[in-house]
Amino acid sequence: MPRTGLIKDQKGATAIEYGLIAALISLACLIAFQMLGLSLAGIFTTINDALNR
User: Fold this and answer.
1) Cβ contacts of residue 40 below 8 Å, gap of 6+?
2) How many C-beta neighbours within 10 Å does residue 33 have?
3) Which partner for 38 in 9, 15, 23, 33 could form a disulfide, CB atoms 3.0-4.6 Å apart?
């Protein structure tokens, strides 16, 4: 009797794919910030200053 349940279960594969997509988007954002000369600390400082007005 073949076990087809293992082949059809793709929930783990979907979670891994979403994780890889999130990692690639994060990497692209970091590269873009570095290319534009933006620092994450500077961005948060600007946001903080704007909220404290």
Assistant:
1) 33
2) 14
3) 33
